[in-house]
Design the sequence.
């Protein structure tokens, strides 16, 4: 088994601020993902990475940067926080390739922008 | 427009009853469907996945897939209060590393 850790658990920022969210996994998975979830609704893909130093944009990448410096960690930066923004950012990881690649999710970082 | 459409948006089911959830993809390149369950305040966890036409059963949960219509459904029999959660359908284009496309979810409430 393994675990995904996300820090911080809660993040409060100011409008225009640059904010960084971190994710660590010990599954030894190759692929990692960042999703955004608004108001208990569906998830939207922001970025994913198939290996160390690789980055691929998802549908929601505008306004975000990502970094995969190590296999076990994947960071997401909100480049300029939007006023009244509230969302949960979920990190996930999976084995690349194969017939089945279940994604395992971390507990999330809840963002509030004042 | 949402590429993965789920219905209904919410569902109230009596304990012991059957819950039926639907999901359709508008992306003809989709190959695989996934059902995730997310309890309130928790992260999503995979419930079932299906890649072939037909039916798959695991305990009280049954998934159907019609690849021609890109429609999948999830059925929960003998529903329990612990089944109350947001059920997310997701689709992927192939079995390699890409992100999943999720629907908006169906919120299921099971009352005693």
Sequence:
């Amino acid at each position: 088994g393994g675990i995904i850790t996300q820090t911080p658990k809660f993040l409060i920022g100011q409008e225009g601020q640059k904010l960084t969210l971190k994710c660590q996994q010990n599954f030894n998975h190759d692929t990692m993902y960042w999703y955004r979830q608004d108001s208990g609704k569906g998830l939207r893909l922001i970025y994913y990475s198939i290996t160390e130093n690789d980055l691929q944009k998802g549908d929601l990448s505008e306004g975000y940067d990502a970094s995969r410096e190590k296999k076990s960690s994947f960071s997401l930066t909100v480049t300029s926080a939007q006023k009244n923004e509230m969302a949960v950012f979920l990190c996930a990881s999976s084995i690349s390739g194969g017939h089945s690649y279940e994604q395992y999710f971390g507990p999330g970082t809840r963002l509030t922008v004042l | 427009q949402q590429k993965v459409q789920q219905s209904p948006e919410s569902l109230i089911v009596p304990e012991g009853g059957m819950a039926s959830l639907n999901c359709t993809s508008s992306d003809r390149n989709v190959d695989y469907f996934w059902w995730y369950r997310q309890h309130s305040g928790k992260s999503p966890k995979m419930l079932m996945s299906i890649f072939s036409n037909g039916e798959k059963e695991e305990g009280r949960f049954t998934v159907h897939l019609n690849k021609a219509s890109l429609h999948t459904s999830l059925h929960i029999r003998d529903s329990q209060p612990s089944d109350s959660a947001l059920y997310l359908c997701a689709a992927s284009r192939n079995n390699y590393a890409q992100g999943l496309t999720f629907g908006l979810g169906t919120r299921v409430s099971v009352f005693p």
Notes: The mean pLDDT of chain A is 92. The two ends of chain A are 38 Å apart (CA to CA). Chain A is about 0% helix and 55% strand. Residues 22 and 75 of chain A are 5 Å apart (CA to CA).
